[in-house]
Design brief:
Distance between the termini: 33 Å
Structural class: alpha/beta
Number of strands: 8
Oligomer: single chain
Order of helices and strands: EHEHEHEHEHEHEHEHHH
Strand content: 5-15%
Length: 304
Amino acid sequence: MNKTAILLVGHGSRNREGNKEILHFAAQWRERHPGWRIETCFIEHADVLLDEGLDRAAHAAHRVVTIPFILNAAGHVKMELPAAIERARARHPGVAFACARHLGMGRELFAVLRGQLDRLLRQLDMPDPHTTGVVLLGRGSSDAGANGEFAKMARWLFEDGDHELVDLAFTGVTWPRLETVVQRQARLGMTQICIVPVYLFTGVLMERIRAQVERLRRQYPQLAFALGTHFGFDEGIFALLDRRVDDHEAPEGGLLECDGCRYRLAAEAAHLHEHSPTHARHAPAHHEHDHGHAYARPHDHAHA
């Protein structure tokens, strides 16, 4: 690892506390691995963004392993990060760049969510699961595959326990929303509801969730609510990142999320066309940008 730099790439938040938490996480991760060189950058809403982060990591390194510190593989992981790595390869031809998989919705994250739910049930004094609904609450994406991976976690929680209802809701971009799911669970006889936010760190959306739950408590005084919080400092997250580093020797090209995907290739071709001199003379003043994946409602994009 002496000549390998690890670049931890966070999403970035308009709430500076969220970005600070990622920097604190990186500091704790360095303490666990004093022989590793760990750098950080963000995709948006921060001082050090992708291009600068990749340049910093490439300095005095033979190899850069980029780890998307992101739960779901939507446009940022499938499009923006690979494009930034390609630019970095052109700027640093003597450095080998690899990109590990994002954190993903696998068994490691499921164990973290299971622990979150167990803590919420203890807050409610271990109520009957048959009358205690569970809501997994995520950011939401215009990428149907990312939303499907999130839905898998809800199904696993349902299979793993005795809860009558385990639903998913989103804070933006797609549906259903938290209020709709709570209304449904109340109609179906739930007397307690555990809300598990699937977020690594704090941010604008975590603040929004807390405000939503306060309104729901006033709207449904007959229900007991238990609200979880972000879980980026959970031991399971450190272990998952350690595994990503251990797996980084996979064959070249086998790590980048969506390499060779027809959507990404089409988007790259469109990007080149948009920036060609001929297109620039005839292009309209405004372009929609949706990464070529699934469907997005342009009036409803939520960013932390």
